[in-house]
Amino acid sequence: MRTLSDSAVGERPAAAASLPVTVCKLTKRYGAFTALKDVDLAIRSGEFLTLLGPSGSGKTTLLMVLAGFVRPDAGSVAFGEREVVLLPPHKRDIGMVFQNYALFPHMSVAGNLAYPLKLRGHGKQDIADRVAQALALVQLEGYGERSVDQLSGGQRQRVALARAVIFEPRILLMDEPLSALDKNLRERMQLEIRRLHDRLGLTTVYVTHDQREALTMSDRIAVMNHGQILQVDRPRDLYDRPSTRFIAEFIGETHCIPIEIQNGEASLFGRALRLATPLATTASAQALVLRPERLQLLSADKPTHDLNTIDGTVRQHVFQGDSVVTFVSLPDGHDIAVRHPYGNDSEHLQPGTAVRVGIAPRDTIVVPAENATATASGRA
Amino acid sequence: MLQHPVSATGITRLHRLWLYAIASAVIFFLIAPTLLVIPMSFSSSRFLEFPPPSWSLRWYHAYFESVEWRDATVVSFEAAIGTMIVSTIVGTMAAYGINYSRFGAKRFVQIALALPMMIPVILTAVGVFIFFAPLGLNNSLTGLILAHSTLAIPLVLISVTAGLKSFNANQEMVARSLGASRIRAFMTVTLPQIRYSVISAALLAFITSLDEVVISLLIAGGDKATLTRRMFLALRDEIDPTIAAISSMLILLSIILMASSQLIRPNRT
To answer: What is the mean pLDDT of residues B228-243?
Structure first.
């Protein structure tokens, strides 16, 4: 059997110990509220999959169903070949990390780590060895005898992680584990958790509402809203090819503007729009996805070569340290953001100046324009 | 000293004199009647009188040499220990269930369990007597424990609910994900963290039973007479300072139990 020490050596372990997870037609209702609606999801063995969505989208309910704390009204959950939907949590062999760490304050750090091993009847010496290995795995050597109160937020998070993997579970579940940490620590822990995952090769399901966190850590992201999975894809594909306007607006700092479709040709504020790929449909309601870092700010009289352009006026510059965001008012009254590096001359354009916003054909993304309500919930 | 300011606003102890006076009066009226029995218990007089004419331990001797008093004491302690066990277990389970269940009617369960605290004890006692009669539970230790538990369970419920409020329920879920069954997770993770509330609750239940007299008067007859019942009857029949001696010891015991239930709690900020 694989042990932590084997995997700690560095080579990626065989994925034999971790399992694929297959979710089929899962439905869960709370009274009139449908938390999960016919959810299908296939998680590969050893994969880091993130459930991403606004609050109330069903992502935590889905995680709780995987953990066994919530019993679905219908559907099936299989770990490998085994159906687990009726199995209580303690028989599922899952490691779990919660938002507020949930370390046991009446036990030392070592006591916390030994807890799952004691439940499994490991011997004293074996427990001591494994606890030492687990502490080394999360760079907390020598912290075993400390009380939980003496640890910082990041250290607590590491102990919670070590406790969740020390008994070699088949699947690791994490419910917004970093949301209580400040930004810098959070970004460090994201990389640390990802490295730990790569080392152990554990099938991992991670829940977050932070799209940047999801993009940073995941092999694949499942975007959820209203109890359904809208798209499952690799981070880059999700970013470049969102399937709906909701996803486009939820991921990245996105502004969508409606485009006109006539005779199968797209145009934007009366100008023909050159696209990277032909329109998928000729439906009339479609929108162009604008991302601040893909836009260029041009003076109104400059020739535009091969760019699509929109006319507008400068409204405001916002300094953000590494970059400056310029808000440009469009003819339809909306503002769009254009991001450019700090030090760029564009910053000296006075508010009210007429400018053009350029977007290269290869950067164009067109999505169906329905679900107008998505913007409000997507920004949560 | 009275002129010395006690805060930056220049308020002196003299300004606060009225506060000290009222507080002292309240404490005096609360405690004095209780403490009065202590000097009386060391009296040499044949009657309960204050102040005692001279001092002696004769009434303590009287208590320890009387078989009847000793039997009553044994019954009282058996009932108190039984009540403590029954009401702590039932009350803790009820507090846990009410705290975590999404059961819609849990408010009503909560009120139903608290009812014995609001209904006059004499009514409970009459009800218990009538209810127990056909079951043959009157004048039995089991009956006494069950009746006292109805009074103690609300207290346990309040104490343990307060403890559970400051407990993070995710911890029990973590324990279960780590391989503990629900009951095991409760015993190894939840209970150790709410132990102070549970211990306080147990001591409260113990004292509730030990001090209870009204129910005992009705249902604890014959050889199951409790200490308080016998004291009450003795007080009616003969004014005997033995009661003062017993009272003093009960007060001491209560103080010790209450103080220890406070002292075991670490000072948490």
So the answer is: 84
User: What is each CA distance from A158 to A22, A210, B172, in whole angstroms?
Assistant: 28, 20, 19
Is A271 inside any structural domain? yes
Range of the domain at A356: 253-368
- Look up the CATH architecture of domain B67-238: Orthogonal Bundle (1.10)
pTM, 2 dp: 0.80
Contacts of residue A220, Cβ cutoff 8 Å, sequence gap at least 6: A47, A48, A49, A50, A232, A233, A234, A235
Determine whether the interchain pair B192/A163 forms a contact, defined as Cβ–Cβ distance below 8 Å. Answer: no
For the segment A243-300, what is each residue's pLDDT rounded down to a tens digit?
888 999 898 888 888 888 877 778 888 788 888 877 777 777 888 888 888 888 888 7
- The residue extents of the domains of chain B are 67-238
- CB of A173 less than 8 A from some CB of B: yes
Say if A31 is an interface residue toward chain B (CB within 8 Å). no
Asked, for residue A247, whether it belongs to a domain, the answer is: no
Q: From A217, A240, A263, give the residue that closes a domain.
A: A240
- Chain B positions touching A96 (Cβ under 8 A) are 173-174, 177-178
Specify the residue for token string 């009275």.
Answer: B2
Q: What is the pLDDT of residues A162-206, one digit of tens each?
A: 999 999 998 999 999 998 888 888 898 899 999 999 988 999 999
Kindly provide the ipTM of the predicted complex, given to two decimals. 0.79
3-state secondary structure of B119: coil
Mutate to test the interface with A, among B168, B178, B193 (most CBs of A within 10 A): B178
